[in-house]
Amino acid sequence: MDFLTFMSVFLLLISTSCYGLSENHHGDEEGGLLVVAPAKQQKEFDYFLLALLWPGTLCQGTNHCCSANACCRSNATSMFTIHGLWVNYNDGTWPACCNNGSNFDIKKITPLLGGLQIYWPSLSCNLESTCDGGKGLFWAHEWEKHGTCATPVIWDEYTYFLTTLNIYFKYNITKILIEEGYIPSNSEKYPLGGIVSAIQNAVRATPLLVCSDGAVQELRLCFCKNFEPQDCPNNVTPEEACPRYVSLPEYVPRI
Ligand code: U2P
Predict the structure, then answer these.
(1) Which domain holds residue 129?
(2) Which atom of ligand 1 is least distant from the CA of 237?
(3) What's the total number of domains in the chain?
(4) 175 CA distance to ligand 1 middle (Å)
(5) Is residue 4 situated within a structural domain?
Protein backbone atom coordinates (compact mmCIF):
# COMPACT_ATOMS: atom_id res chain seq x y z
CA MET A 1 0.00 0.00 0.00
CA ASP A 2 1.50 3.38 -0.92
CA PHE A 3 1.75 6.32 1.47
CA LEU A 4 -1.32 8.22 0.22
CA THR A 5 -3.56 5.14 0.14
CA PHE A 6 -2.51 4.26 3.66
CA MET A 7 -3.34 7.75 4.83
CA SER A 8 -6.78 7.74 3.18
CA VAL A 9 -7.69 4.51 4.94
CA PHE A 10 -6.46 5.92 8.23
CA LEU A 11 -8.50 9.10 7.77
CA LEU A 12 -11.67 7.08 7.39
CA LEU A 13 -10.88 5.23 10.58
CA ILE A 14 -10.51 8.36 12.66
CA SER A 15 -13.74 10.12 11.59
CA THR A 16 -16.09 9.34 14.45
CA SER A 17 -18.16 11.48 16.76
CA CYS A 18 -16.57 13.78 19.36
CA TYR A 19 -18.54 12.74 22.38
CA GLY A 20 -17.91 10.04 24.92
CA LEU A 21 -14.18 9.67 24.52
CA SER A 22 -12.82 12.67 26.35
CA GLU A 23 -14.12 11.94 29.82
CA ASN A 24 -11.21 9.94 31.13
CA HIS A 25 -9.99 12.94 33.07
CA HIS A 26 -8.68 12.49 36.55
CA GLY A 27 -6.39 14.12 39.07
CA ASP A 28 -6.21 17.74 40.20
CA GLU A 29 -5.84 20.66 37.85
CA GLU A 30 -2.35 22.15 37.88
CA GLY A 31 -2.42 25.93 38.03
CA GLY A 32 -0.98 28.02 35.21
CA LEU A 33 2.45 26.43 34.81
CA LEU A 34 4.04 24.02 32.40
CA VAL A 35 3.54 20.57 33.87
CA VAL A 36 6.45 18.19 33.44
CA ALA A 37 6.02 14.91 35.21
CA PRO A 38 7.26 11.37 34.76
CA ALA A 39 4.88 9.04 32.94
CA LYS A 40 3.66 7.25 36.06
CA GLN A 41 2.33 10.45 37.66
CA GLN A 42 1.13 11.97 34.40
CA LYS A 43 -2.44 13.14 34.37
CA GLU A 44 -4.14 12.33 31.06
CA PHE A 45 -4.40 15.26 28.63
CA ASP A 46 -7.73 16.89 27.72
CA TYR A 47 -7.43 17.74 24.02
CA PHE A 48 -5.13 17.73 20.99
CA LEU A 49 -3.82 20.86 19.34
CA LEU A 50 -2.39 20.87 15.82
CA ALA A 51 0.01 23.79 15.56
CA LEU A 52 0.77 25.06 12.05
CA LEU A 53 3.52 27.49 11.07
CA TRP A 54 3.42 30.21 8.42
CA PRO A 55 6.88 30.16 6.75
CA GLY A 56 6.28 33.55 5.11
CA THR A 57 6.47 35.11 8.58
CA LEU A 58 8.98 32.84 10.28
CA CYS A 59 11.47 32.83 7.44
CA GLN A 60 11.79 36.62 7.66
CA GLY A 61 14.02 35.96 10.67
CA THR A 62 16.41 33.65 8.80
CA ASN A 63 19.96 34.94 9.06
CA HIS A 64 21.88 32.03 7.61
CA CYS A 65 21.09 28.98 5.55
CA CYS A 66 21.67 25.25 5.68
CA SER A 67 20.13 22.30 3.85
CA ALA A 68 17.95 21.35 6.86
CA ASN A 69 16.17 24.71 6.89
CA ALA A 70 13.08 24.87 4.67
CA CYS A 71 13.39 28.68 4.66
CA CYS A 72 16.42 28.12 2.43
CA ARG A 73 14.58 26.13 -0.24
CA SER A 74 14.50 27.83 -3.61
CA ASN A 75 10.92 26.75 -4.35
CA ALA A 76 8.38 28.79 -2.42
CA THR A 77 6.83 27.20 0.68
CA SER A 78 3.54 29.06 0.34
CA MET A 79 1.59 26.87 2.70
CA PHE A 80 1.21 26.32 6.39
CA THR A 81 3.65 23.67 7.57
CA ILE A 82 3.35 21.54 10.68
CA HIS A 83 4.79 22.67 14.00
CA GLY A 84 3.50 19.77 16.04
CA LEU A 85 0.60 17.84 17.46
CA TRP A 86 0.41 18.91 21.07
CA VAL A 87 -1.63 17.62 23.98
CA ASN A 88 -3.05 20.17 26.38
CA TYR A 89 -5.09 20.50 29.53
CA ASN A 90 -8.24 22.60 29.61
CA ASP A 91 -6.67 24.91 32.21
CA GLY A 92 -4.11 26.21 29.70
CA THR A 93 -1.18 24.05 30.81
CA TRP A 94 0.23 21.00 29.09
CA PRO A 95 2.29 17.95 29.95
CA ALA A 96 5.74 17.55 28.43
CA CYS A 97 8.42 14.86 28.15
CA CYS A 98 6.29 12.03 29.49
CA ASN A 99 8.52 9.09 28.72
CA ASN A 100 12.26 9.46 28.69
CA GLY A 101 12.57 5.87 27.50
CA SER A 102 10.97 6.85 24.19
CA ASN A 103 13.87 8.67 22.61
CA PHE A 104 13.26 9.68 19.01
CA ASP A 105 14.42 7.08 16.48
CA ILE A 106 14.30 8.22 12.86
CA LYS A 107 14.31 4.60 11.66
CA LYS A 108 10.82 4.15 13.10
CA ILE A 109 9.38 6.72 10.67
CA THR A 110 11.30 5.85 7.50
CA PRO A 111 8.12 5.41 5.38
CA LEU A 112 6.93 8.90 6.39
CA LEU A 113 10.14 10.84 5.80
CA GLY A 114 9.21 12.01 2.28
CA GLY A 115 6.00 13.60 3.58
CA LEU A 116 7.61 14.96 6.73
CA GLN A 117 10.35 16.74 4.80
CA ILE A 118 7.76 18.59 2.73
CA TYR A 119 5.00 19.23 5.24
CA TRP A 120 6.80 19.16 8.60
CA PRO A 121 10.16 20.77 7.87
CA SER A 122 12.37 22.63 10.27
CA LEU A 123 12.35 26.38 9.62
CA SER A 124 15.69 26.88 11.31
CA CYS A 125 19.23 25.53 11.13
CA ASN A 126 19.44 25.01 14.87
CA LEU A 127 18.96 21.66 16.53
CA GLU A 128 16.19 21.65 19.14
CA SER A 129 16.27 20.56 22.76
CA THR A 130 15.31 16.99 23.53
CA CYS A 131 13.91 15.66 26.77
CA ASP A 132 17.25 14.31 28.02
CA GLY A 133 18.75 17.80 27.74
CA GLY A 134 20.50 17.08 24.44
CA LYS A 135 19.90 18.51 20.99
CA GLY A 136 18.12 16.84 18.09
CA LEU A 137 15.99 17.25 15.02
CA PHE A 138 12.78 19.29 15.14
CA TRP A 139 10.89 15.98 14.86
CA ALA A 140 12.77 14.57 17.85
CA HIS A 141 11.81 17.60 19.92
CA GLU A 142 8.13 17.36 18.99
CA TRP A 143 7.84 13.60 19.55
CA GLU A 144 9.68 13.57 22.86
CA LYS A 145 8.12 16.72 24.30
CA HIS A 146 4.53 16.32 23.07
CA GLY A 147 4.04 12.93 21.43
CA THR A 148 5.10 10.91 24.45
CA CYS A 149 2.29 12.59 26.43
CA ALA A 150 -0.46 11.55 23.99
CA THR A 151 -1.25 8.24 25.67
CA PRO A 152 -3.69 6.54 25.83
CA VAL A 153 -4.65 7.75 22.34
CA ILE A 154 -1.22 7.56 20.71
CA TRP A 155 1.41 5.17 22.06
CA ASP A 156 4.25 5.18 19.57
CA GLU A 157 6.37 7.45 17.42
CA TYR A 158 5.18 6.15 14.05
CA THR A 159 1.51 6.63 14.96
CA TYR A 160 2.25 10.13 16.29
CA PHE A 161 3.73 11.29 12.99
CA LEU A 162 1.23 9.46 10.79
CA THR A 163 -1.73 10.81 12.78
CA THR A 164 -0.38 14.35 12.59
CA LEU A 165 0.11 14.16 8.82
CA ASN A 166 -3.40 12.78 8.42
CA ILE A 167 -5.06 15.58 10.37
CA TYR A 168 -2.95 18.12 8.51
CA PHE A 169 -4.13 16.77 5.15
CA LYS A 170 -7.74 16.46 6.27
CA TYR A 171 -7.96 20.16 7.19
CA ASN A 172 -6.09 21.94 4.42
CA ILE A 173 -5.94 25.37 6.01
CA THR A 174 -3.89 26.96 3.23
CA LYS A 175 -6.49 25.90 0.64
CA ILE A 176 -9.38 27.04 2.84
CA LEU A 177 -7.89 30.53 3.18
CA ILE A 178 -6.89 30.92 -0.46
CA GLU A 179 -10.37 29.88 -1.61
CA GLU A 180 -11.81 32.63 0.60
CA GLY A 181 -9.49 35.25 -0.90
CA TYR A 182 -6.81 35.30 1.80
CA ILE A 183 -3.88 35.23 -0.60
CA PRO A 184 -0.30 35.48 0.71
CA SER A 185 0.81 39.05 0.11
CA ASN A 186 3.50 41.46 1.22
CA SER A 187 1.18 44.44 0.90
CA GLU A 188 -2.36 43.35 1.90
CA LYS A 189 -3.79 43.22 5.41
CA TYR A 190 -6.76 41.00 6.17
CA PRO A 191 -9.37 41.19 8.96
CA LEU A 192 -8.54 38.61 11.62
CA GLY A 193 -12.27 37.96 12.09
CA GLY A 194 -12.59 37.04 8.40
CA ILE A 195 -9.79 34.49 8.60
CA VAL A 196 -11.27 32.98 11.77
CA SER A 197 -14.75 32.80 10.16
CA ALA A 198 -13.39 31.12 7.02
CA ILE A 199 -11.85 28.38 9.16
CA GLN A 200 -14.89 28.09 11.42
CA ASN A 201 -17.08 27.54 8.36
CA ALA A 202 -14.80 24.89 6.89
CA VAL A 203 -13.70 23.06 10.04
CA ARG A 204 -16.74 23.75 12.28
CA ALA A 205 -14.51 24.88 15.15
CA THR A 206 -12.69 28.05 16.20
CA PRO A 207 -8.93 28.20 15.57
CA LEU A 208 -6.37 30.22 17.47
CA LEU A 209 -3.93 32.50 15.67
CA VAL A 210 -0.55 33.67 16.88
CA CYS A 211 1.08 36.76 15.35
CA SER A 212 4.45 38.41 15.26
CA ASP A 213 4.48 42.13 14.42
CA GLY A 214 0.98 41.86 12.99
CA ALA A 215 1.85 38.93 10.71
CA VAL A 216 0.31 35.48 11.12
CA GLN A 217 3.01 33.22 12.52
CA GLU A 218 1.08 30.22 13.72
CA LEU A 219 -2.42 28.83 13.38
CA ARG A 220 -3.74 26.27 15.86
CA LEU A 221 -6.61 23.83 15.45
CA CYS A 222 -7.97 21.89 18.40
CA PHE A 223 -9.42 18.38 18.51
CA CYS A 224 -11.01 16.17 21.08
CA LYS A 225 -9.49 12.79 21.69
CA ASN A 226 -11.22 11.14 18.76
CA PHE A 227 -9.93 13.89 16.46
CA GLU A 228 -13.25 15.65 15.97
CA PRO A 229 -12.57 19.41 15.79
CA GLN A 230 -13.33 21.45 18.89
CA ASP A 231 -12.96 25.17 19.64
CA CYS A 232 -9.50 26.21 20.80
CA PRO A 233 -9.37 28.02 24.14
CA ASN A 234 -8.20 31.60 23.60
CA ASN A 235 -5.07 31.39 25.72
CA VAL A 236 -2.37 33.20 23.75
CA THR A 237 -0.16 35.63 25.61
CA PRO A 238 -0.56 39.37 24.88
CA GLU A 239 2.73 39.31 22.93
CA GLU A 240 1.44 36.49 20.70
CA ALA A 241 -2.05 37.95 20.14
CA CYS A 242 -3.02 39.10 16.64
CA PRO A 243 -4.29 42.61 15.88
CA ARG A 244 -7.65 43.17 14.13
CA TYR A 245 -5.95 43.31 10.75
CA VAL A 246 -3.14 40.88 10.00
CA SER A 247 -0.75 40.17 7.17
CA LEU A 248 -0.01 36.82 5.58
CA PRO A 249 3.44 37.52 4.11
CA GLU A 250 4.64 35.82 0.96
CA TYR A 251 7.54 33.44 1.34
CA VAL A 252 10.77 34.97 0.14
CA PRO A 253 13.52 32.36 -0.36
CA ARG A 254 16.60 33.23 1.69
CA ILE A 255 19.26 32.02 -0.75
O1 U2P B 1 4.16 29.10 22.77
C2 U2P B 1 5.51 28.80 23.00
C3 U2P B 1 5.75 27.30 23.02
O4 U2P B 1 5.06 26.68 24.11
C5 U2P B 1 4.61 25.37 23.72
N6 U2P B 1 3.14 25.32 23.76
C7 U2P B 1 2.40 26.46 23.60
C8 U2P B 1 1.03 26.41 23.65
C9 U2P B 1 0.38 25.19 23.86
O10 U2P B 1 -0.87 25.12 23.87
N11 U2P B 1 1.14 24.06 24.00
C12 U2P B 1 2.51 24.09 23.94
O13 U2P B 1 3.17 23.06 24.05
C14 U2P B 1 5.18 25.13 22.34
O15 U2P B 1 6.46 24.53 22.52
P16 U2P B 1 7.34 23.79 21.40
O17 U2P B 1 6.60 22.63 20.87
O18 U2P B 1 7.62 24.80 20.34
O19 U2P B 1 8.58 23.42 22.16
C20 U2P B 1 5.24 26.56 21.82
O21 U2P B 1 6.06 26.75 20.72
Answers:
(1) 47-247
(2) 1
(3) 1
(4) 25
(5) no
